[in-house]
Write a structure and sequence with these properties.
Layout (H helix, E strand, L loop, with lengths): L1 H7 L3 E7 L7 E6 L1 H16 L7 H7 L9 H25 L11 H26 L1 H4 L1 H6 L14
Antiparallel strand pairs: 1-2
Helix pairs in contact: 4-5
Length: 159
């Protein structure tokens, strides 16, 4: 459907049709002059204009009060561990690219991903440490919301 729409808009044109064995016929398309201009315009916009994107973790942070403050540092430590592994995988991929003859321009999205993972690692570490170092001082409201979750034999702190 997407290719049909691109063709309808004059951005691509059929270049070749082929068939291999018993497979269905395959059509190869080429960009038209208008298609190339549209592609470049869209890429200029994507590269130059920041947009607000909503990753799942950001959504989770906005609702973190649903969880008990006592359990969050452990969850953040688990996330930190997984992010550290992810950063290592990305570094390995980046380090092996030159030996495979991959030009740096073709791995810059991995460099960006690594920068994001490293920034998140820093943030998650600081947040976990902040909650661990001063659990009661982090948010009185947050702790108050979870008083009912405490065992009945545990005293409720007074203000």
């Amino acid at each position: 459907m997407v290719v049909e729409q691109l063709h309808r808009n004059g951005y691509v044109t059929p270049q070749d049709t082929s068939r291999e064995g018993r497979r269905p016929e395959r059509t190869t398309y080429a960009l038209t002059k208008d298609g190339r201009a549209e592609l470049r315009a869209r890429m200029r916009e994507l590269v130059s204009t920041p947009v607000k994107e909503y990753p799942g973790f950001q959504a989770a942070l906005s609702l973190i009060v649903v969880l008990s403050p006592g359990e969050v540092p452990g969850l953040l430590d688990r996330r930190r561990h997984m992010l550290t592994e992810r950063a290592g995988e990305i570094r390995t991929r980046l380090d092996s690219a030159p030996a495979k003859g991959v030009d740096r321009v073709f791995v810059i999205e991995h460099e960006y991903e690594l920068a994001l993972v490293e920034a998140e690692l820093t943030f998650v570490g600081r947040l976990a440490d902040l909650i661990k170092e001063d659990p009661e001082g982090f948010s009185t409201l947050w702790h108050g919301l979870h008083r009912a979750d405490r065992p009945t034999d545990e005293p409720t702190p007074r203000r």
